């Protein structure tokens, strides 16, 4: 569904997907957000990324009316980040971006932290991606 902004000079339609992308990008801009989406969505997104494409709206659901929008976000926080502070910063950035770019009043931004990214997880991936060495002895 698209929302329409009607003025005396014409009509502007903004698709819900546009609002979701703006909200997703605004959330990702905040330091401490590691990824967006719940576990299954992130796994699907990483496979999509391998074949050339990703969804900036992953982990974002929006409900858009004529003049207002409500946003729901699923995200993964970096370990060590204060989650209440992270949620406040994400909420502020999303509201600012959507209101500025779409002209819609954001009535709420609900944030669900699905996981915490641990630094060891990156080291484990690096170790798995290293090529296997020849055996040292025969």
Architecture overview:
There is one protein chain. With 138 residues, the chain is an alpha+beta fold. It has one domain (2-129): Cation efflux protein, cytoplasmic domain (Alpha-Beta Plaits, 2-Layer Sandwich), CATH 3.30.70. 41% of the residues lie in helices and 33% in strands. It has four helices and six strands. The protein has helices at 16-28, 39-50, 83-102, 119-129; strands at 2-7, 10-15, 33-36, 60-64, 68-78, 105-117. Strands 3, 4, 5 and 6 form a four-stranded mixed sheet that branches. Strands 1-2 form a two-stranded antiparallel sheet. Strand 1 (2-7) and strand 2 form a beta hairpin. The N and C termini lie far apart (66 Å).
- Going by CATH, the homologous superfamily would be Cation efflux protein, cytoplasmic domain
Helix vs. strand class: alpha+beta
Number of domains: 1
Report how far the terminal alpha carbons are from each other. Answer: 66 Å
- The CATH topology name reads Alpha-Beta Plaits
Main sheet specs = 4 strands, mixed
Order of helices and strands: EEHEHEEHEH
Q: At CATH's second level, what is the architecture?
A: 2-Layer Sandwich
* Tally of alpha and pi helices: 4
Radius of gyration, taken over Cα atoms and rounded to an integer in Å: 19 Å
Strand content: 25-35%
Q: What coarse outline follows from CA principal-axis ratios? A: elongated
CATH class category label:
Alpha Beta
pLDDT averaged over residues: 85
Family: Belongs to the asp23 family.
Organism: Nonomuraea terrae
Protein name: Asp23/Gls24 family envelope stress response protein
Pfam families: Asp23
